[in-house]
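Technical note accompanying the year-one report. For the benefit of new consortium partners, we illustrate the data format agreed upon in the data management plan: each record pairs a sequence with a structure-token string. No post-processing was applied to the example shown here.
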Amino acid sequence: MPIRLLSLPTKDFQYTLNCMNDGDLIAFSLCSKHSKNLTKSLNRKNWKTRARVFEDSVQLDLIVCRYEEVQNQDENEIYISLDTSSRIEPYRDCGVATEMNRWRKPEFTGTHWLAHFLSIFNESMVPVLKITRECKMAFLNTFIFPKCPILRFERECTNELIEQCVSKLSAEHLWMMSNHRFYRPKSIQLNLMERISGDRILKGIRYEILDGPRYGFLYRLKRADEKELEVSIRLGRDVISSKMKNYEACETENKSVACEVPGDKIDGGVICGNSNFEIDEGINSSANFAILDVSHRDHEHSKRLAVANFGAKLNFSKNDGVDVGIDADLVRYAYEGENFKVGTGLSYSTGIKFQPESVKIQVLGYGFEYDNDGFGLKIPLLDLKFKWW
């Protein structure tokens, strides 16, 4: 006799979910939005997730745990074939499909399926994306992939296919779009069997050559918001590392805590401050002091808590416009996600900013801002910003 899962006592229901394998959990998560949220709440993590792109499908591999730790090989892996239709076919045991594991959701495309699977297993990106020699760009263009830190190519992939994929998926192209569309890279590597010239990798991007060609070329990319990325390209390996411009001509900074981990940055301190001054086609100067200023950011989000944060800035430039003002945050907590930014506390900041792609006006905490990222409104107790993407 069938038993309605949602009618079970909480303890029994939780035990049942914990006993499900990945395939059962995926099927349960498709029943409703509530069942999807219940699946996410388990915080089930797979040991490895990867995607492989073929001629007309994407295979998503979910591997539960390390092979040396597995007790039942059949339960350790599930392979899901995604295409442009609303149907998916999961496989186990080296590709043998079973009828019970064929699912349909009419409103879903392959991109929706991919986002759903990553969401229920609390993944924000595809850790490894492998391009096979059968991959066709016409099919790849029908998929939207989240951020992928590792992009691999089969040895048999043609240079033309590699260039097309790099142009669509590579770090420097995504980085140029806008800072909320791509995490702040520290070091990204692209390993190729054959050399591809820098101008072909950076096709469509404005860049400046800083050094070369004796040991390779060093390029500088610059976005509209003044952030910069240096790209070093050498034979056999392209190493891409970001260096954000922060007016280092004359700068002092004192923070009591600083810690960097892969993909995350935590910094802050008690009684901390910084100042800088630069004259280069204009004046760029600022100073800041805070009793407490702690922030944390990772690939997807950033958070900041400030107490008694006071600062001033005076920036005039023929090319960059005007940015002057006084920051006065008695206490403020801010959270920034992929599509929005919200802050709360007590702020009486005042200033004006007119730049080619950004406008911001504040008077005693009241104001608005508009730029390439989105549009925001501010009052002393609350500020909201909605992003375009």
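Partners are asked to follow this layout when depositing records. The chain has two domains: 45-242, 251-387.
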